[in-house]
Design a protein that fits this description.
By secondary structure, the protein is mostly helical. The chain is built from 5 helices and 2 strands.
Length: 127
């Protein structure tokens, strides 16, 4: 079973889907700090995408402090939280994220109430 899924029918670029999926797996606890990620080649084959796409995402996640790569060993979920972000910047990032989520939900045909119900279920430990 893959750590993430990719939807070829989704208009979101593959690298963005992959990065979002890895970040979500970490945020939801499916990937714990210190967990080893599949190799670039393994994940590319598993998801049927180009290895350069996976390498690009891993590099971006490493640059953000989300994962760390140990030469000759592999890539792992970083033990610490990503670098601290000033409150003002964090709020701006959250606002941009919320805008993207709402746009994606609208495109998928979900109502705001359905989205909120899903978030509440996730918060409560449901699906």
């Amino acid at each position: 079973m893959s750590i993430v899924t990719i939807d070829a029918g989704d208009p979101t670029p593959l690298y963005a889907q992959l990065e979002r999926g890895v970040r979500a797996a970490i945020a939801t606890g499916r990937l714990q700090p210190g967990a080893q990620l599949p190799t670039v080649r393994q994940l590319a084959v598993e998801l049927s995408i180009n290895a350069n796409t996976v390498a690009r995402v891993y590099a971006a996640l490493e640059g953000a402090g989300v994962i760390e790569t140990r030469r000759g060993v592999g890539s792992f979920v970083a033990a610490g939280a990503p670098r601290a972000v000033p409150v003002r910047e964090r709020r701006r990032q959250v606002a941009q994220f919320v805008t993207r989520v709402l746009a994606d939900a609208d495109t998928a045909g979900f109502t705001l109430d359905e989205l909120l119900e899903g978030l509440e279920a996730r918060k409560a430990g449901g699906a």
